[in-house]
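Data availability (excerpt). The following record was deposited with the supplementary files.
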Amino acid sequence: MKEAMGEMIRTLQLEGKMNQVKLINAWPKIMGNTVNLRTKEVMIIDRKLVVTLLSASLRQELFLERTRILRMLNEEAGASVIDEIIFR
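Predicted structure:
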């Protein structure tokens, strides 16, 4: 059954979308409850993670850590899903 599902996902070319969903769902786990509560929206556009935050000071702090956050999120998704993070 697992092999059949994997083949269907590859045939329908859904792997990329599934990895994007994994990455977005990993945001609260990777960033923790404090950051997640101050996050308004997380989306992926053209391999860029766009994160809308409710706090300017948090935005600056996360901007400085964006390379580390990018690596952790891609590792959690199990694939190179994003190349850049944009905080707004």
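Summary of structural features: The first strand starts at residue 39 and ends at 45.
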